[in-house]
Amino acid sequence: MIVWRDKLQAFGIHFVLTALVAAAAAALIFLVWFPAPFNEMIGGTRLFELVVGCDLALGPLISLVIYNRAKSRRELTIDYSIVVLVQLAALTYGVWVMAGSRPAYVAFEKDRFEVVMAQSIGDKDLVEAKNTNYARLPLAGPELVAVNIPAAEQQSVLFEELAGHPSHVRPRFFVPYSAALEEIRKRAGTIVDLETRHPEAKALVEAAVTESGVPLERLRWLPVSARLGFWTALIDLETGKPVAYARVDPY
């Protein structure tokens, strides 16, 4: 005889436990690795959402099927151990994929920002880092850096870029962000200029200005290149750092 009350209770307990584990993973991914709006700039979150959705649906549903109070504790332990292992394997895979696609750096190069994904930087590139601070990938969210190419290496860098190995994925050329503040302020354009060039994006720019919390006269902008296209970063002239991003292609 099927005791639905027991099965529904098992379903509910399994669902809550699965949701708690998924919430912890989601907090790591969307609050630390992909702070807004980097999840929109880079994408890749759909796989994680799919894995979590399957975990939340299939795990508890399997509980609904396999739970039977007539089974011995040993049988239930074996059943649930298999289910939990499968769920954890799927969730681990989703987190691993997200770890590789997370934005490791926001690098200022020449006249724009490049959002650099962790998987774009190879082990060899990390070994070649001149500054040991960049010899390992950051785990606490994207870090601001600047790219500085010595004059003696300009030609070799050009050949590397033509071969698909751009300088912004090579920690060898990373320097502290503060070293480029003067150049950033020089290159950054005014908000009025941005709205004049792209009147269709005025609402998005104004929303970003409001989000920044910085007076308009202190704001400037620079392009941002990411995997899914171009955005615009609003810069606080006082600090030289991005304070908001607008989904606007400034080109």
Report on this structure.
By secondary structure, this protein is of the alpha+beta class. The protein folds into 3 domains: 4-101, no CATH class; 102-185, no CATH class; 188-251, no CATH class. Helix content is 50%, strand content 18%. The chain contains 9 helices and 8 strands. Strands 1, 2, 3, 4, 5, 6, 7 and 8 form an 8-stranded mixed β-sheet that branches. Helix 3 (45-66) packs antiparallel against helix 4. The chain is elongated and about 75 Å long. The chain starts with a helix and ends in a 5-residue tail after the last strand. The relative contact order is 0.11.
Helix-strand string: HHHHEEHEHEHEHHEEE
Spans of 5+ residues with little confidence (pLDDT < 50)? none
Number of helical regions: 9
Q: Would you report the number of β strands?
A: 8
The rounded Rg comes to 24 Å
Percent of residues in helices: 40-55%
The domain tally reads 3
Structural class: alpha+beta
Between the first and last Cα atoms, what is the distance in angstroms? 68 Å
What's the pLDDT, averaged over the residues?
91
Explain the layout of strands and helices.
Layout: H1 4-33, H2 38-42, H3 45-66, H4 73-101, E1 103-109, E2 112-117, H5 123-127, E3 143-147, H6 154-162, E4 174-176, H7 181-187, E5 189-190, H8 191-197, H9 202-212, E6 219-226, E7 229-236, E8 242-246
Parallel strand pairs: 1-3, 2-6
Antiparallel strand pairs: 1-2, 3-4, 5-6, 6-7, 7-8
Helix pairs in contact: 1-3, 1-4, 3-4
